[in-house]
Protein backbone atom coordinates (compact mmCIF):
# COMPACT_ATOMS: atom_id res chain seq x y z
CA UNK A 1 0.00 0.00 0.00
CA UNK A 2 2.95 2.38 0.45
CA UNK A 3 4.56 3.92 -2.62
CA UNK A 4 7.57 6.08 -1.93
CA UNK A 5 7.33 9.61 -3.25
CA UNK A 6 9.31 10.64 -6.30
CA UNK A 7 11.32 12.89 -3.95
CA UNK A 8 12.23 10.05 -1.62
CA UNK A 9 13.09 7.83 -4.54
CA UNK A 10 15.27 10.51 -6.07
CA UNK A 11 17.65 10.54 -3.07
CA UNK A 12 20.92 8.93 -4.06
CA UNK A 13 21.80 5.80 -2.10
CA UNK A 14 24.96 6.68 -0.24
CA UNK A 15 28.21 4.82 -0.87
CA UNK A 16 29.20 5.89 2.62
CA UNK A 17 26.35 3.97 4.19
CA UNK A 18 27.52 0.74 2.57
CA UNK A 19 30.99 1.19 4.07
CA UNK A 20 29.60 2.09 7.47
CA UNK A 21 27.39 -0.99 7.62
CA UNK A 22 30.29 -3.22 6.55
CA UNK A 23 32.47 -1.64 9.27
CA UNK A 24 29.74 -2.24 11.88
CA UNK A 25 29.36 -5.83 10.73
CA UNK A 26 33.12 -6.42 11.11
CA UNK A 27 33.01 -4.87 14.60
CA UNK A 28 30.16 -7.20 15.56
CA UNK A 29 32.37 -10.08 14.51
CA UNK A 30 34.99 -8.81 16.96
CA UNK A 31 37.37 -7.26 14.41
CA UNK A 32 39.04 -4.09 15.76
CA UNK A 33 38.12 -1.64 13.04
CA UNK A 34 39.46 1.91 13.40
CA UNK A 35 37.02 4.47 12.10
CA UNK A 36 38.53 7.37 10.16
CA UNK A 37 35.13 8.07 8.67
CA UNK A 38 33.44 10.12 11.38
CA UNK A 39 32.78 13.80 10.79
CA UNK A 40 32.88 14.98 14.37
CA UNK A 41 35.36 16.21 16.97
CA UNK A 42 36.65 13.50 19.33
CA UNK A 43 36.74 16.06 22.17
CA UNK A 44 34.03 16.16 24.81
CA UNK A 45 31.75 19.21 24.96
CA UNK A 46 33.50 21.71 27.33
CA UNK A 47 32.27 21.71 30.96
CA UNK A 48 31.02 25.35 31.02
CA UNK A 49 28.66 24.51 28.15
CA UNK A 50 27.37 21.33 29.80
CA UNK A 51 26.84 23.21 33.05
CA UNK A 52 24.64 25.78 31.31
CA UNK A 53 22.50 22.99 29.86
CA UNK A 54 22.09 21.35 33.26
CA UNK A 55 21.13 24.70 34.74
CA UNK A 56 18.58 25.20 31.92
CA UNK A 57 16.99 21.83 32.62
CA UNK A 58 16.86 22.42 36.37
CA UNK A 59 15.34 25.86 36.00
CA UNK A 60 12.58 24.58 33.71
CA UNK A 61 13.81 25.95 30.39
CA UNK A 62 12.26 22.91 28.81
CA UNK A 63 9.40 24.28 26.77
CA UNK A 64 8.93 25.53 23.20
CA UNK A 65 10.91 28.64 22.38
CA UNK A 66 10.37 31.20 19.64
CA UNK A 67 10.78 29.56 16.23
CA UNK A 68 13.92 31.60 15.47
CA UNK A 69 15.48 30.92 18.89
CA UNK A 70 15.60 32.54 22.31
CA UNK A 71 16.32 36.31 22.03
CA UNK A 72 19.48 36.07 24.20
CA UNK A 73 20.99 33.55 21.82
CA UNK A 74 20.11 35.54 18.71
CA UNK A 75 21.70 38.58 20.31
CA UNK A 76 24.82 36.56 21.13
CA UNK A 77 24.98 35.24 17.55
CA UNK A 78 24.51 38.72 16.15
CA UNK A 79 27.39 39.92 18.36
CA UNK A 80 29.54 36.93 17.39
CA UNK A 81 29.02 37.63 13.68
CA UNK A 82 30.17 41.17 14.25
CA UNK A 83 33.26 40.63 16.38
CA UNK A 84 34.50 37.38 14.87
CA UNK A 85 33.45 37.82 11.25
CA UNK A 86 32.91 41.52 10.69
CA UNK A 87 29.31 40.81 9.61
CA UNK A 88 26.43 43.01 10.65
CA UNK A 89 23.31 40.96 11.15
CA UNK A 90 20.74 42.41 13.54
CA UNK A 91 19.20 39.85 15.91
CA UNK A 92 16.08 39.68 13.65
CA UNK A 93 18.39 38.84 10.72
CA UNK A 94 19.65 35.77 12.61
CA UNK A 95 17.92 32.43 13.14
CA UNK A 96 18.66 29.34 15.20
CA UNK A 97 18.15 25.87 13.70
CA UNK A 98 18.50 22.21 14.62
CA UNK A 99 22.07 21.92 13.38
CA UNK A 100 23.84 23.63 10.53
CA UNK A 101 22.22 21.06 8.32
CA UNK A 102 18.74 22.41 8.96
CA UNK A 103 19.92 25.98 8.37
CA UNK A 104 21.13 24.89 4.93
CA UNK A 105 17.96 22.93 4.25
CA UNK A 106 15.74 25.89 5.19
CA UNK A 107 17.90 28.22 3.10
CA UNK A 108 17.68 26.07 -0.03
CA UNK A 109 13.92 25.66 0.36
CA UNK A 110 13.51 29.40 0.95
CA UNK A 111 15.57 30.43 -2.08
CA UNK A 112 15.40 27.82 -4.85
CA UNK A 113 12.80 26.98 -7.46
CA UNK A 114 12.71 23.87 -9.64
CA UNK A 115 15.14 24.23 -12.54
CA UNK A 116 17.38 26.80 -10.81
CA UNK A 117 21.07 25.97 -11.07
CA UNK A 118 23.38 25.98 -8.04
CA UNK A 119 27.16 26.07 -8.41
CA UNK A 120 28.93 23.78 -5.94
CA UNK A 121 32.73 23.46 -5.87
CA UNK A 122 33.78 19.79 -5.94
CA UNK A 123 34.81 17.79 -3.97
CA UNK A 124 31.78 18.87 -1.94
CA UNK A 125 30.06 17.88 1.26
CA UNK A 126 27.58 15.19 0.18
CA UNK A 127 24.48 16.93 1.50
CA UNK A 128 24.71 20.04 -0.72
CA UNK A 129 23.79 18.42 -4.05
CA UNK A 130 21.24 16.12 -2.41
CA UNK A 131 19.45 18.96 -0.59
CA UNK A 132 19.54 21.18 -3.67
CA UNK A 133 18.09 18.35 -5.78
CA UNK A 134 15.32 17.81 -3.21
CA UNK A 135 14.08 21.34 -3.92
CA UNK A 136 13.95 20.50 -7.64
CA UNK A 137 16.92 22.75 -8.39
CA UNK A 138 19.97 21.43 -10.24
CA UNK A 139 23.38 21.09 -8.56
CA UNK A 140 26.22 22.02 -10.91
CA UNK A 141 29.63 20.83 -9.67
CA UNK A 142 32.64 23.08 -10.26
CA UNK A 143 35.74 20.88 -10.20
CA UNK A 144 38.91 21.64 -8.28
CA UNK A 145 42.07 19.52 -8.24
CA UNK A 146 44.25 17.94 -5.58
CA UNK A 147 47.30 19.50 -7.32
CA UNK A 148 45.97 22.96 -6.52
CA UNK A 149 45.10 21.94 -2.95
CA UNK A 150 41.44 21.98 -4.06
CA UNK A 151 41.57 25.74 -4.51
CA UNK A 152 38.65 27.24 -6.39
CA UNK A 153 39.37 29.26 -9.52
CA UNK A 154 36.71 31.99 -9.85
CA UNK A 155 37.02 31.71 -13.68
CA UNK A 156 35.83 28.09 -13.42
CA UNK A 157 32.79 29.31 -11.51
CA UNK A 158 32.11 32.07 -14.05
CA UNK A 159 32.38 29.58 -16.93
CA UNK A 160 29.46 27.58 -15.55
CA UNK A 161 27.05 30.45 -15.07
CA UNK A 162 23.95 30.20 -17.29
CA UNK A 163 20.73 32.23 -17.32
CA UNK A 164 19.35 29.70 -14.82
CA UNK A 165 22.15 30.03 -12.26
CA UNK A 166 20.85 31.38 -8.96
CA UNK A 167 23.30 30.46 -6.25
CA UNK A 168 26.87 29.60 -5.30
CA UNK A 169 27.47 27.35 -2.29
CA UNK A 170 30.83 27.89 -0.58
CA UNK A 171 32.33 25.90 2.25
CA UNK A 172 35.63 27.28 3.48
CA UNK A 173 37.31 25.66 5.38
CA UNK A 174 35.89 22.77 3.43
CA UNK A 175 34.63 19.29 4.08
CA UNK A 176 36.05 17.01 2.65
CA UNK A 177 39.05 18.92 1.25
CA UNK A 178 40.19 21.09 4.15
CA UNK A 179 40.75 23.86 1.59
CA UNK A 180 40.56 27.44 2.84
CA UNK A 181 39.81 30.01 0.12
CA UNK A 182 42.04 33.10 0.40
CA UNK A 183 40.56 36.61 0.70
CA UNK A 184 41.34 37.60 -2.91
CA UNK A 185 39.48 34.56 -4.27
CA UNK A 186 36.48 35.30 -2.06
CA UNK A 187 36.58 38.89 -3.22
CA UNK A 188 36.47 37.80 -6.89
CA UNK A 189 33.56 35.46 -6.16
CA UNK A 190 31.74 38.26 -4.35
CA UNK A 191 32.21 40.50 -7.40
CA UNK A 192 30.88 37.76 -9.64
CA UNK A 193 27.80 37.38 -7.44
CA UNK A 194 27.32 41.12 -7.55
CA UNK A 195 27.68 41.38 -11.36
CA UNK A 196 25.54 38.36 -12.16
CA UNK A 197 22.90 38.80 -9.45
CA UNK A 198 23.67 35.51 -7.66
CA UNK A 199 23.20 34.61 -4.03
CA UNK A 200 26.00 33.06 -2.01
CA UNK A 201 25.38 30.52 0.73
CA UNK A 202 28.56 30.45 2.81
CA UNK A 203 28.87 27.46 5.13
CA UNK A 204 31.45 28.43 7.76
CA UNK A 205 31.01 25.49 10.14
CA UNK A 206 34.79 24.90 10.32
CA UNK A 207 35.84 28.56 10.64
CA UNK A 208 37.87 28.06 13.83
CA UNK A 209 39.78 25.05 12.57
CA UNK A 210 42.44 26.71 10.44
CA UNK A 211 46.17 26.07 10.57
CA UNK A 212 47.94 29.23 9.51
CA UNK A 213 45.55 30.21 6.71
CA UNK A 214 43.45 33.34 6.93
CA UNK A 215 39.74 32.63 7.31
CA UNK A 216 37.51 35.39 5.96
CA UNK A 217 33.72 35.56 5.71
CA UNK A 218 32.69 36.31 2.13
CA UNK A 219 29.69 38.18 3.52
CA UNK A 220 32.06 41.05 4.35
CA UNK A 221 32.57 41.59 0.59
CA UNK A 222 28.98 41.02 -0.60
CA UNK A 223 26.65 41.57 2.38
CA UNK A 224 23.48 41.93 0.28
CA UNK A 225 24.19 38.72 -1.59
CA UNK A 226 25.35 36.42 1.19
CA UNK A 227 23.66 34.12 3.63
CA UNK A 228 26.12 32.92 6.28
CA UNK A 229 25.64 29.51 7.88
CA UNK A 230 27.41 28.39 11.01
CA UNK A 231 26.77 26.31 14.11
CA UNK A 232 27.95 24.86 17.37
CA UNK A 233 28.74 21.33 16.18
CA UNK A 234 32.36 21.54 15.06
CA UNK A 235 33.51 24.67 16.89
CA UNK A 236 32.50 23.59 20.40
CA UNK A 237 32.36 19.77 19.97
CA UNK A 238 28.57 19.86 20.16
CA UNK A 239 27.46 17.63 17.26
CA UNK A 240 24.81 15.86 19.32
CA UNK A 241 23.23 19.06 20.64
CA UNK A 242 21.97 20.05 17.18
CA UNK A 243 22.46 23.80 17.11
CA UNK A 244 23.08 25.68 13.89
CA UNK A 245 22.40 29.24 12.90
CA UNK A 246 22.23 31.58 9.95
CA UNK A 247 22.56 35.30 9.35
CA UNK A 248 21.50 37.15 6.23
CA UNK A 249 19.02 39.56 4.70
CA UNK A 250 16.05 39.80 7.10
CA UNK A 251 13.52 38.78 4.40
CA UNK A 252 15.42 35.55 3.69
CA UNK A 253 15.70 34.78 7.39
CA UNK A 254 11.95 35.39 7.75
CA UNK A 255 11.23 32.90 4.94
CA UNK A 256 13.51 30.34 6.60
CA UNK A 257 11.64 30.88 9.86
CA UNK A 258 8.33 30.30 8.11
CA UNK A 259 9.60 26.97 6.75
CA UNK A 260 10.95 26.00 10.16
CA UNK A 261 7.67 26.98 11.85
CA UNK A 262 5.87 24.33 9.77
CA UNK A 263 8.50 21.62 10.26
CA UNK A 264 10.60 21.47 13.44
CA UNK A 265 9.41 24.67 15.24
CA UNK A 266 12.48 25.46 17.30
CA UNK A 267 15.88 24.00 18.07
CA UNK A 268 16.05 22.19 21.43
CA UNK A 269 15.57 24.72 24.23
CA UNK A 270 18.22 23.10 26.43
CA UNK A 271 20.73 23.08 23.58
CA UNK A 272 20.05 26.76 22.92
CA UNK A 273 21.07 27.62 26.50
CA UNK A 274 24.19 25.50 26.07
CA UNK A 275 25.06 27.36 22.85
CA UNK A 276 24.43 30.64 24.64
CA UNK A 277 27.14 29.72 27.16
CA UNK A 278 29.50 28.79 24.32
CA UNK A 279 28.94 32.18 22.68
CA UNK A 280 29.05 34.35 25.79
CA UNK A 281 31.62 32.76 28.14
CA UNK A 282 34.36 33.91 25.82
CA UNK A 283 37.42 33.01 27.82
CA UNK A 284 36.51 29.39 28.51
CA UNK A 285 35.32 28.88 24.94
CA UNK A 286 38.39 30.47 23.38
CA UNK A 287 40.63 28.26 25.52
CA UNK A 288 38.82 25.15 24.34
CA UNK A 289 38.91 26.17 20.67
CA UNK A 290 42.62 26.90 20.78
CA UNK A 291 43.47 23.62 22.53
CA UNK A 292 41.45 21.66 19.99
CA UNK A 293 42.88 23.59 17.06
CA UNK A 294 46.44 22.91 18.17
CA UNK A 295 45.74 19.21 18.65
CA UNK A 296 44.19 18.96 15.18
CA UNK A 297 47.17 20.70 13.63
CA UNK A 298 49.64 18.21 15.14
CA UNK A 299 47.44 15.35 13.94
CA UNK A 300 47.13 16.86 10.48
CA UNK A 301 50.92 17.19 10.14
CA UNK A 302 51.30 13.58 11.20
CA UNK A 303 48.74 12.05 8.89
CA UNK A 304 49.70 14.17 5.86
CA UNK A 305 53.38 13.19 6.22
CA UNK A 306 52.46 9.55 6.80
CA UNK A 307 50.08 9.26 3.85
CA UNK A 308 52.45 10.97 1.44
CA UNK A 309 55.29 8.70 2.58
CA UNK A 310 53.08 5.72 1.72
CA UNK A 311 52.31 7.08 -1.76
CA UNK A 312 48.70 7.81 -0.82
CA UNK A 313 49.27 11.39 -1.85
CA UNK A 314 47.41 14.23 -0.28
CA UNK A 315 47.86 18.00 -0.33
CA UNK A 316 48.24 19.66 3.07
CA UNK A 317 44.77 20.86 4.04
CA UNK A 318 44.69 24.25 5.72
CA UNK A 319 41.54 23.71 7.71
CA UNK A 320 38.81 21.40 9.09
CA UNK A 321 39.85 17.88 10.18
CA UNK A 322 39.83 15.85 6.97
CA UNK A 323 42.36 14.77 4.37
CA UNK A 324 41.64 13.50 0.88
CA UNK A 325 44.10 10.76 -0.08
CA UNK A 326 44.71 9.44 -3.58
CA UNK A 327 44.20 5.68 -3.29
CA UNK A 328 45.10 4.67 -6.85
CA UNK A 329 48.10 2.77 -5.43
CA UNK A 330 45.59 0.46 -3.73
CA UNK A 331 42.97 0.36 -6.49
CA UNK A 332 41.99 2.79 -9.26
CA UNK A 333 38.35 2.59 -8.17
CA UNK A 334 37.97 4.33 -4.79
CA UNK A 335 35.07 2.05 -3.78
CA UNK A 336 37.23 -1.01 -4.28
CA UNK A 337 40.15 0.75 -2.50
CA UNK A 338 37.82 1.56 0.41
CA UNK A 339 36.75 -2.07 0.60
CA UNK A 340 40.36 -3.29 0.68
CA UNK A 341 41.34 -0.72 3.30
CA UNK A 342 38.45 -1.90 5.45
CA UNK A 343 38.81 -5.65 4.94
CA UNK A 344 42.60 -5.87 4.91
CA UNK A 345 43.78 -2.91 7.01
CA UNK A 346 40.70 -2.76 9.26
CA UNK A 347 40.36 0.98 8.78
CA UNK A 348 37.06 2.59 7.79
CA UNK A 349 37.42 5.52 5.38
CA UNK A 350 34.87 7.24 3.14
CA UNK A 351 35.10 6.75 -0.62
CA UNK A 352 35.22 9.99 -2.62
CA UNK A 353 32.32 8.73 -4.76
CA UNK A 354 29.66 10.71 -2.90
CA UNK A 355 31.88 13.81 -2.63
CA UNK A 356 32.52 14.14 -6.35
CA UNK A 357 36.11 12.98 -5.77
CA UNK A 358 36.91 9.88 -7.84
CA UNK A 359 40.13 7.99 -7.04
CA UNK A 360 40.28 9.45 -3.54
CA UNK A 361 39.06 8.65 -0.05
CA UNK A 362 38.40 10.91 2.91
CA UNK A 363 40.03 10.30 6.27
CA UNK A 364 39.00 12.24 9.34
CA UNK A 365 41.85 12.95 11.77
CA UNK A 366 39.64 13.88 14.71
CA UNK A 367 41.34 11.03 16.58
CA UNK A 368 44.22 10.62 19.03
CA UNK A 369 47.80 10.53 17.73
CA UNK A 370 48.32 6.88 18.70
CA UNK A 371 45.29 5.91 16.67
CA UNK A 372 46.61 7.85 13.70
CA UNK A 373 49.97 6.07 14.10
CA UNK A 374 48.21 2.72 14.12
CA UNK A 375 46.22 3.62 11.00
CA UNK A 376 49.41 4.55 9.16
CA UNK A 377 51.04 1.30 10.29
CA UNK A 378 48.08 -0.75 9.01
CA UNK A 379 48.01 1.10 5.68
CA UNK A 380 51.77 0.49 5.39
CA UNK A 381 51.20 -3.25 5.85
CA UNK A 382 48.44 -3.22 3.24
CA UNK A 383 50.75 -1.58 0.74
CA UNK A 384 53.78 -3.74 1.58
N1 LIG B 1 28.30 21.73 6.83
C1 LIG B 1 29.37 20.94 6.70
C2 LIG B 1 30.40 21.27 5.69
C3 LIG B 1 29.51 19.80 7.50
O1 LIG B 1 30.57 19.01 7.36
C4 LIG B 1 28.50 19.50 8.43
C5 LIG B 1 28.57 18.28 9.27
O2 LIG B 1 29.19 17.32 8.95
C6 LIG B 1 27.41 20.36 8.53
C7 LIG B 1 27.34 21.46 7.72
C8 LIG B 1 26.26 20.11 9.45
O3 LIG B 1 26.56 20.21 10.76
P1 LIG B 1 25.46 20.03 11.90
O4 LIG B 1 25.91 18.86 12.69
O5 LIG B 1 25.50 21.29 12.67
O6 LIG B 1 24.14 19.81 11.25
From TrEMBL:
Source species, domain of life: Bacteria
EC number of the protein: 2.6.1.-
GO BP: any one term: amino acid metabolic process
Cofactor: pyridoxal 5'-phosphate
Residue ranges constituting the Aminotransferase class I/classII large domain according to the UniProt record: 32-379
Enzyme class: transferase
GO MF, any single term: pyridoxal phosphate binding
Keywords, alphabetical: Aminotransferase, Pyridoxal phosphate, Transferase
Pfam families: Aminotran_1_2
SUPFAM superfamilies linked: PLP-dependent transferases
Catalytic activity field: L-arogenate + oxaloacetate = prephenate + L-aspartate
Free-text function comment from the UniProt entry: Catalyzes the reversible conversion of aspartate and 2-oxoglutarate to glutamate and oxaloacetate. Can also transaminate prephenate in the presence of aspartate.
Family the entry assigns: Belongs to the class-I pyridoxal-phosphate-dependent aminotransferase family.
Official protein name in the record: Aminotransferase
